[in-house]
Amino acid sequence: xxxxxxxxxxxxxxxxxxxxVPATCPQPHxxxxxxxxxxxxxxxxxxxxxxxVFQLADTSHAxxxxxxxxxxxxxxxxxxxxxxxxLLTLQGVNAAHFHRIADHVLVDITxxxxxxxELVRHLNTAATSWQCRAEIMQSCITTDPAPHTxxxxx
Length: 154
Description:
The protein is α+β, with helices and mostly antiparallel strands. It has helices at residues 3-13, 28-31, 36-60, 80-88, 116-126, and strands spanning 64-72, 93-97, 104-110, 133-136. Strands 2-3-1-4 form a 4-stranded antiparallel β-sheet.
């Protein structure tokens, strides 16, 4: 094929932009209005992005538990800063509240990373020189129903 014939053939096969082969995703700003296919595609993309964002937010909120620890001994109230520092260095400890209940500390932990017994062991090891002792506070509040009592009639 000669150069001139090639140019003629190329000119015949070229089409203007608007009459070209449609793209896989028509662009509404080029043609003039959004197609239903384009609207579905945009909705699907928005849903995927939204679900991905919420999935990441859900994974960052692990289950938390508040552990009440009773503090006994003469050195506990004077060494609150040291006790707090000892607790907060542990992985899985999120916060320590000392003044909510007298002679107690409420420790917020992430479930699965640390167990309450490890908190007690770590505190008792750190506070041996202060004569302070930590114990898990046993609560008298349970989810069991109260025992049924019978009233004896005379």
